[in-house]
Amino acid sequence: MKLLRTNNDGVIRAWRRGDPARNSRRSLYTDGKHLFSYHLVIGAHTGNTCVVADYTAATGSFQTQTTSCHVGLAKRAADLVMHPRVWMVSPLSKTNEEVPF
Predict the structure, then answer these.
(1) Mean of the pLDDT values across residues 15-43?
(2) What distance in Å separates the CA atoms of residue 62 and residue 23, rounded to the nearest whole number?
(3) Which of 57, 63, 65, 87 could join 82 in a cystine, given CB atoms 3.0 to 4.6 angstroms apart?
(4) Torsions phi, psi for 32 (to 5 deg)
(5) What own/partner pairs with CB < 8 Å and gap ≥ 24 does 30-35 have?
(6) Buried b vs exposed e over 1-36: b needs ≥16 C-beta within 10 Å?
(7) Interatomic CA distance for residues 59 and 19, integer angstroms
């Protein structure tokens, strides 16, 4: 499947559908399964569920202002939002592991 080049909202929509996409600056992108802000995995699409790690100042896990914006967009589309500490120990944060549920 061809990689779609779109805006940030389009990347989030593609991630929800399970399609690969990236924004013009390549700061937000998805392989269809994982959602990345720069090279940090901030979301995972498994089955019919989209899960996002809340990498924002509110959780004490601030990364960058851009990543916080990406997380904010993804949170609006997500089915589940995880605290980053929970996210990091879950298999969802890894790009090479299967989800146990």
Answers:
(1) 95
(2) 21
(3) 87
(4) 100, -25
(5) 31/95, 32/1, 33/95, 34/95, 35/11, 35/70, 35/74
(6) eeebebebebbbbbbbebbbbbbeeebbbbbeebbb
(7) 29
- pLDDT score, position 99: 47
Q: pLDDT digits over 30-87, tens only?
A: 999 999 999 999 999 988 999 999 999 988 888 899 999 999 999 999 999 999 888 8
Beta bridge partners of 82: 53
Per-position DSSP letters for the chain, written without gaps between them: -PPEE--HHHHHHHHHHT--EE-TTSSEEE-SSEEEETTEEEEEEETTEEEEE--SGGGT----HHHHHHHHHHHHH-SEEE-HHHHHHSGGG-SSS----
